[in-house]
């Protein structure tokens, strides 16, 4: 587990990110290892103070994640507000002038924001994964660096092809975690990390994040790639990616819904077909949430006067 965390942190240093995020990720990985030590999953050559079942250690990690998330949101809102004030001071909120951000500034700000979200995804994944899956987390991060950071820039694929590649790799990551069409493969232990008693909302949310953490990490990596390599037509690239994501979900669930309707009297309809349909519906809900989040981001850019980027539509 310690070697896996070293691989994850070493690869994260290759990405362009702020000093705050690097220190936060280092503290987070150390905190996760401390939490696993408290639960007895890993050992150390020396003893460390720990609480029962690592509850307080996990809550400290949650606090760190919330601080990083709050900083990311604050920076994004501050940038958009500063942009809005500049455009409003001239002729109105939708007026583009020489006071706007330059193309290089806008690209750098978008890249920093998406990279912070990607690091947040890594932090959630390393916390919610089981200890024996820490090697899988390291392999995911390493694979993303090799494919997205080295191979894709050389291939120079279109946006829809890049999006499909990320979706396929996200499905691979989902299956690599041990998930299948059986509900028995869902790891519900992740829903109780840092909890002293059962809470349906928190436990359900953590279980959902743990189940789809690998999937979410690939989608976040897709956003980083788009901001880095399609900054000259950022809005149109995001729209094309959203269309591809929507179609990749609409077609499978439509076909499988028809299939289940035809086979509704099959002997294994509740043991085979129903769980698969449930997973397809869950994947669709997740895709809808991701798409709406991306569209809200584009709306904020439009309101705050990013007119040069919008001209690419």
What does the secondary structure layout of this molecule look like, with pairings?
Layout: H1 2-12, H2 19-39, H3 55-88, H4 103-128, H5 134-155, H6 159-176, H7 200-211, H8 213-229, H9 234-262, H10 269-303, H11 307-310
Helix pairs in contact: 1-2, 1-5, 2-3, 2-4, 3-4, 4-8, 5-8, 6-8, 6-9, 7-8, 9-10
Please outline what is shown here:
The protein has helices at 2-12, 19-39, 55-88, 103-128, 134-155, 159-176, 200-211, 213-229, 234-262, 269-303, 307-310.
How would you sum up this structure, described in words?
There is one protein chain. The protein contains eleven helices and no strands. The protein has 313 residues and is mainly α. The longest helix has 35 residues, at 269-303. 29% of the residues are buried. Residues 91-99 and 308-313 have low confidence and may be disordered.
CA(first)-CA(last) distance: 46 Å
Secondary structural class: mainly alpha
Large-scale geometry: globular
Radius of gyration: 21 Å
Mean pLDDT: 82
């Amino acid at each position: 587990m310690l070697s896996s965390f070293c691989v994850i942190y070493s690869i994260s240093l290759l990405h362009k990110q702020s000093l705050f995020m690097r220190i936060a990720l280092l503290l987070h990985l150390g905190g996760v290892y401390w939490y696993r030590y408290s639960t007895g999953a890993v050992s150390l050559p020396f003893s460390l103070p720990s609480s029962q079942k690592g509850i307080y250690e996990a809550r400290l990690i949650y606090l760190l994640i919330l601080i990083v998330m709050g900083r990311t949101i604050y920076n994004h809102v501050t940038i958009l507000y500063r942009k809005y004030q500049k455009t409003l001071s001239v002729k109105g909120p939708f007026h583009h002038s020489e006071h706007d951000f330059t193309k290089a500034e806008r690209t750098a700000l978008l890249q920093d924001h998406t990279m912070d979200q990607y690091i947040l995804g890594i932090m959630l994944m390393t916390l919610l994964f089981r200890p024996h899956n820490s090697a899988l987390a390291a392999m995911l991060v390493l694979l993303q660096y090799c494919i997205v950071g080295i191979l894709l820039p050389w291939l120079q694929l279109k946006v829809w092809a890049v999006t499909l590649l990320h979706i396929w790799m996200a499905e691979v990551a989902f299956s690599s975690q041990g998930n299948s069409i059986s509900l028995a493969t869902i790891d519900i232990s992740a829903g109780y990390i840092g909890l002293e008693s059962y809470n349906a909302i928190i436990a359900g949310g953590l279980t959902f994040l743990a189940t789809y953490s690998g999937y979410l990490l690939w989608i976040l990596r897709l956003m980083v790639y788009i901001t880095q390599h399609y900054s000259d037509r950022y809005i149109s690239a995001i729209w094309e990616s959203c269309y591809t994501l929507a179609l990749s979900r609409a077609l499978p669930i439509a076909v499988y819904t028809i299939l289940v309707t035809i086979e509704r009297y099959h002997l294994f309809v509740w043991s085979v077909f129903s769980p698969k349909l449930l997973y397809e519906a869950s994947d669709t809900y997740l895709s809808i949430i991701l798409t709406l989040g991306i569209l809200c981001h584009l709306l904020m850019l439009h309101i705050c006067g990013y007119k040069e980027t919008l001209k690419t539509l």
